[in-house]
Amino acid sequence: MRISSFLPIGFGLAAAFSLGSCHEIAGLEEHVLLPSSDGREPDEDDVWQVPAEQCNFRDDDFNGLTDEGFSWALSDWSPIASGYDWQELRAVRMPDGAVGFGVSRQNGPSSTDLWVGLLDADGSVISAPREVAVEQVLHGWDVAVNPVLAELAIAYVRQPPTEENCEKGCIFEMLRFDRALSPKTEAPEKTNFPRHRVRRLFDLDWNTAGYVSLTLDKDGYAWVEWIDHLHFVFPNGGYGKIPGMRPDLARMSVGPATAWTAMGLTDADRYEVWSGVFSPGGYQRIVEGHPMASSSSALALGKGNSVAWGPNGAMVLMAEGGGDSAGTLLLGAVATGETRVAGQASNPVAHSLTAVGSSLIASSSAGASTTLLWRWEDPPGDGSSTPFATLEGTLDHVVVAGGYPPLVLRVTADGKNLQVARVHCVEP
After folding, report:
1. Would you call 108 exposed, middle or buried from its count of C-beta atoms within 10 A (0-12, 13-18, 19+)?
2. Over the stretch 182-228, which tens digit does the pLDDT of each residue have?
3. Are 110 and 126 in contact, with CB atoms under 8 Å apart?
4. H helix or E strand, kind and range, residue 383
5. Radius of gyration, alpha carbons of the chain
6. DSSP characters for 22-77?
C-alpha cells in the first residue's frame, strides 16, 4: 500500500506564480489602515487578534484543527427506548439541532418494521420511536432531513408480495414528517422515482436540488438521482448512473457536491472500492468513478456512512488487512484516491465517518460487539491513531454532529435497547 500525504487543492496553482508576486496574491503589500469606528485615529494595534482555541467542537483560531490541545471523551449511556430485535440505526440533524432517527426491527424471519423517533440537541428524548412501516420485506432503507421545510423523511425499498428478490423491480416508498413527527403523508407514497427498476436502496440525503437517492437497478448498477418537490425524478438526463462496477455496498455524502463511494465487482472482474463526485444537480461527473487505492490486500467499506466531507474535501473510510494481525483503518481522499492511515487495531472493520468542525470521527468495529471511536485531524493531531472511546456491547451505532456537539446513538448487542451518549471535551 502506498501511503502519501495530501496536497492542498490549490498547491499546483499557487506554485505557478513567481515568488516576486506572492505578496500581491496574499495581500501583504503596503496599505492604509481604515478609520476606527469610534472616531479615534487608527494605529498599528488596530489589527485582528486570533481568538484563543476553546473546547467547543469548533475551530476557534481558524488553523484547520478543532479543539487542538483538548481531549474528547464519551459520557455514560442514557436510555432512549427498550424493545426486541432492534437492528440497524440511522440518524440526521434537524435544523434546530434536534436529531431525527430511524431504527429497524426484525419481525419474524423475513419481515422488518421501521420506527422513527426524535431527540433534542443534547440527546434527551422528545419522541420515543414509533412504528411507521410494518411487516415489510425490505431491500434497504434510510432517513434524511429537508432543512428548508424542517421535515424528516424515511424511505425504503420493499419487495412486492408476489415477487422474490425484486427480479422485476421493487417498490420505492417515502414517508415524511414535520418537526413534531406528525405525518406529512398519511400513507406510504409511491413516487415517480426512480425511472429505472430498482432492486435496493443504499442511501438517502437532501441538497438544494431535492432529495437525493443512491439505488441499485435491476442490472446491478448504482444510480444517484434527485427527486424534486413534486416527487418527480430531477431531469438531469440520466447522468446519475455510476458506470463500471456493480456494487454490493454504496454510500454518499452531500456537501459542496455529492460524493459517493462503492464496493463491488468492476466490469473488469476486479473487486474494488471506488469513489467519485457528482455536481449538485447531477448534470456532471465532477470526479469520475475510480479505484481508491492500489493494494495487495483487499479494502473494505463499512455499512455506516463511510464517506463524508471533511476539511480537505470528501473522504472515505476503509479497512485493510485484519485477521490475526493488526489491521489498518485508512482515510482516502475522493478527489485523488490517495490514502492515509487513520488508525491500527486488531481485526478492524470500518463503519462510518462523521465531520465535526474541521475534524472527523471515524468509527470501527473490533470483534462482534465492540466499537472504537477515532478522532482524526489533518494535519494529524494527538488523537489520530488512538481511539478516544470504546463501546462495548454494541450491535449498531451512528454518530451525528451537524454543527452541534456530537451524539452517539447505539443498539445494544442483545438488540433490546436504544441508547444515546454525548461526546464531550476534556479540559487539559
Report:
1. exposed
2. 888 766 666 656 666 788 999 999 988 788 999 998 889 999 988 76
3. no
4. none
5. 23
6. HHHHHT-S---PPPPTTSSPP-TT-SPPPPPP-SSSS-TT-SS-SSTT-EEEE---
Q: Which amino acid, 177?
A: F
User: How many other C-beta atoms lie within 10 A of the C-beta of residue 415?
Assistant: 16
- Closest to 233 (Cα-Cα) out of 281, 298, 276, 267: 281
Least confident of 65-74, 236-245, 389-398: 236-245
What element of type H or E holds 13?
helix 11-15
What is the helix (H) or strand (E) element at residue 355, kind and residue range? Answer: strand 348-356
- Residue predicted with more confidence, 246 or 106: 246
421 near 77, Cβ under 8 Å?
Answer: yes
| Bridge partners for 277 per DSSP | 259, 287
* One-letter amino acid of 128: A
- Cβ distance 156 to 144 under 8 Å? no
- Give φ, ψ of 396 to 5 degrees: -150, 160
